[in-house]
Design a protein that fits this description.
Order of helices and strands: EHEHEHEHHEHHHEHHEHEH
Radius of gyration: 17 Å
Catalytic activity: D-glyceraldehyde 3-phosphate = dihydroxyacetone phosphate
Pfam family, one: TIM
CATH architecture: Alpha-Beta Barrel
CATH class: Alpha Beta
Keywords: Cytoplasm, Gluconeogenesis, Glycolysis, Isomerase
Protein name: Triosephosphate isomerase
Number of helices: 12
Distance between the termini: 18 Å
CATH topology: TIM Barrel
Structural class: alpha/beta
CATH superfamily: Aldolase class I
Subunit structure: Homodimer.
Strand order of the largest sheet: 1-2-3-4-5-6-7-8
Length: about 250
């Protein structure tokens, strides 16, 4: 059975004092998590060890890095390697976020290399895909997202692809206050699952968790997560507000 996941993406936000406060609050909150329902916190790199320590009391609260480099070590000043993450017990990494694609020119091929090295070190990629507004307005979002997935993931075996979590984020809904309707989210998630099914078969596709990201909030989480192919959310701004994200997790 595929897992339900509420993943927090703190992006480049928070001081050490603020991170301490947030992590303490989440560690002590009444969260409805279990073997099949996880909360994952993608925190800025300086706080990864802190987050591991603060959340260690609950195995269903996991920590993710926000990025890795495509090489395991070397002269790549400022980058973070999978060896580093593995050495501090980090089991998840966010890859392919639209901000990485747009601001840092990360290509589908480059992301394929990142996916490969993450899986080699048993770190689960939370792989982001999604279309900008002009693609949505042209009604070519399915082909756009299919290309992202095909070029970055379809070289993987059926066994390996089931270790990847997908996060569909319509770029036009990230941080804008706009949210895809629950019907739009379900339509795209169903399409993504069908795209995997065409390559790997329905059984494999049904084992892949697909999260929705894009202005997820407490007041829309229940409706979004009730859709049959929406397995949770990748949450930005709302994950920095304790009461808000607790409600999202429990949704």
């Amino acid at each position: 059975m595929r897992k339900q996941i509420a993943a927090a993406n703190w992006k480049m936000n928070g001081t050490l004092e603020q991170a301490n406060t947030l992590l303490d609050a989440f560690a002590s909150a009444a969260l409805d998590v279990n073997d099949n329902r996880l909360a994952i916190f993608a925190v800025p790199a300086p706080y990864l060890i802190l987050a591991k320590e603060k959340l260690a009391g609950n195995p269903y609260l996991q920590v993710a890095a926000q990025n890795i480099y495509s090489k395991k070590s070397g002269a790549y000043t400022g980058e973070i390697s999978v060896e580093m993450l593995q050495s501090i017990g980090i089991n998840y990494v966010v890859l392919g976020h639209s901000e990485r694609r747009e601001y840092f020119n990360e290509s589908n091929a480059f992301l394929a290399d990142k996916v490969n090295i993450a899986l080699e070190y048993n770190i689960t990629p939370i792989f982001c895909c999604g279309e900008p507004l002009n693609i949505r307005e042209a009604d070519t979002q399915n082909a756009y997202v299919a290309e992202q997935l095909t070029e970055s993931l379809f070289h993987l075996s059926a066994e390996a692809i089931q270790k990847v979590v997908i996060a569909y984020e319509p770029i036009w809904a990230i941080g804008t206050g706009k949210t895809a309707s629950s019907a739009q989210a379900q339509e795209m998630h169903a399409y993504i699952r069908s795209h995997f099914a065409a390559k790997y078969g329905a059984d494999v596709a049904n084992n892949i968790s697909i999260l929705y990201g894009g202005s997820v909030k407490a007041n829309n989480a229940v409706e979004l997560f009730s859709q049959p192919d929406v397995d949770g959310g990748l949450v930005g701004g709302a994950s920095l507000i304790v009461d808000e994200f607790v409600q999202i997790i429990n949704a």
